[in-house]
Write a structure and sequence with these properties.
This protein is mainly α. 66% of the residues lie in helices and 8% in strands. It has a two-stranded antiparallel sheet. α2 runs antiparallel to α4. It is elongated, with a radius of gyration of 20 Å.
């Protein structure tokens, strides 16, 4: 079965689980950055300041990555719908599991 993605619904990127997954990844990256591999400026921070920095880092990371995804989806839709270029094609094969 061949499938082609012609349009990406931008609102589905915003209200799906994608921002939550990106936030969790940012949270994990921030914990590693602030607790396990701290730089000289981070090393002197108290635990409370580190927790606030982790929250702010995760929020900013989420906002930036989601904004980038929305921009990429907008440009993809522009090229596929307005310009008329072909979309991404998938060749999916069904298998029987017995």
């Amino acid at each position: 079965m061949k499938l082609e993605i012609k349009n990406i619904n931008i609102s589905s990127l915003l209200v799906s689980s994608v921002p939550v997954v990106i936030f969790v990844l940012g949270l994990l990256g921030a914990v590693i950055t602030f607790f396990f591999t701290p730089g000289p400026a981070i090393y002197t921070m108290s635990v409370g300041k580190k927790l606030i920095a982790i929250g702010m880092y995760s929020l900013m990371y989420t906002l930036l990555v989601v904004a980038l995804l929305v921009f990429v989806a907008f440009v993809y839709n522009l090229f596929t719908n307005v310009v008329g270029l072909r979309g991404i094609k998938f060749d999916i094969e069904e298998t029987n599991q017995e």
